[in-house]
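=== RUN LOG ===
request id: a7f3
mode: sequence -> structure
chains: 1
length: 306
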Amino acid sequence: MTVRVRDFLPADAAAWVRVRRAALPYMVTTPEVIAFDLANAHPDKRYRLLVAEEDGEILGTAQVGIAHDTPEPGQGFCNPYTHPQRVGRGAGSLLVRTAEEYLARVGAVSVHTWVLDEPANRAFAEKRGYTPSRPAHFLRLDLARASLPPRQELPPGVELRTAADFADDPRPLFEADAESTADEPSDTPAELTDYEDWLRTTWNSPGLDRELTSVAVVDGEVAAFSVAETDGLTRYWSGMTGTRRAYRNRGLAKLAKSDSLRRARAAGYTDAYTGNDAGNGPMLAINSWFGYEICATEVRHVRRIG
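=== RESULT ===
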C-alpha cells in the first residue's frame, strides 16, 4: 500500500476532523467549519487543504497557504498533522514536501509551521530544515467542575452585551478585532483591513457562537470582547479576547471573558480551551485567574524556501 497526497474533497470533512482531533485534541473544529473556511478563503491566501491517504484511509491533513494579511509578503504556512496511530508511514513527509512545492510556486519565500513541543515532532521539523521560533500554549478549563471567580461589579458606564446584539451592524466588533489583532505577538503579525472579508470569513463562520461571544461596552462604545467558538456539543474555544487600546488596564477583558464562560457553561459546554503566545503575559495571567491550565505547547518553526 502506498501513501498519496491529494486535495481535500467535501466528502473528507468528517475524516479530516477525526484526524485533527486525534493529533491535536485541544483545538475545537467541525466538518462544517473546515469546508466553510476553504470555500470562503480570500483569493490572496491561496488556501489549500491537503490530505494524505493510504488504501482509502485518511492518515494526515495539512492546511497550506499564504499569510496575505501580514505586511511582509511571501510568508507561507503549512500545518501538517498525522493521526497518532498512523505515524511512520511517510504521510507527514509527503504532506510537507507537497506543501512546500506548492508554496514555492505561488511566491512564498518562507514557510511557517506549528510543531508540538515533543522530541519526535521537533526532530521531524529540524530534519527538514525548520528552525524554532516562538512558543505558544494550549490551555484547558474543566468548565463543568471549575469554580469560576465571583462575578465582578460592572464599573459605571460599562455594560455587557453579546455579539448577537450587533447583528445589524457588526463593524464596531470588526474595528475592535482589528486593533486587538494588530497588537498580538506573532512572527507574522496580521493587519485586518478588509471589512467585507472579515464579514465573510469570521462573522459568518459556522463556528462562531454570537450568543456566547461577550462584549464589554463603555458609554456605548465597544471596549473589549471575548470570542466564543464551539462545536455545538460540549467543546468551547476562546478564539480571541481583546481590549481596544484606549480601554486597557481596566479589567474589561476579564469581565467579557467571565461573562462568556458563564454563558457557555449555562448552555451545556463542559470543556473550555484557548491558546496563548508564551510571551503574552497579561492574557496568560487572566486565563490562570479563571483556572485554565497549560495542557500542551507548540513551537513556531520557519524555513526559507525562496
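=== NOTES ===
The first strand starts at residue 3 and ends at 7.
The first helix runs from residue 13 to 23.
=== END ===
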